[in-house]
Amino acid sequence: MVGFRTDEQPYEAHSPATLGNGWRDVGNLRHASTATGGVGLLRVSGAELGRKGVLRFSVTGEFFSSPDFPVLGASNTRTAGTFAIGYVPLDFLDVSLSYTASTNTNSRSSPTLIQALGDLTLGARATKQWLPGLWAGGDVRVMTFSGVGEGKVAFGFSPRAVATYDARTLDPRLPLRAHANLGLQVDGTGSMVDTGRLNASEQYALGINRYSRLTVGLGLEAPLPVATPFVEYNLASPLGVPGGRLVAPDGTTVSVGRVAPQTLGLGARVTALQNLTFTAAAEFGLTRQVGYGVQPVPPFNLVLGASFNVDPSLQATGGTRVVERVVREPAVSQTVAAAPQTSQVSGVVLDAKTRQPIPGVFVALVDSTLPPVASAPGDGRFLTYALPSGPVKLSVRKEGYLPLERELVLKAGETASVELELVAEVKPATLALAVTSKRKPVSATLAFLGGPESRRVAFSAADAASHSLQLPAGRYVVEVTAPGFLAQTRSVQFTDGSSQELAFELEPEPKQWQVKRANDKLELLQALRFAEGKAVLLPDSYPLLSQVVDLVVRTDIKRLRIEGHTDNQGDKTANLNLSKERARAVADYLIKAGLDPSRVESEGFGDSRPVAPNLTPKGRALNRRVDFFILER
Question: Where is the OmpA-like domain (predicted)?
Answer without folding.
Answer: 517-633
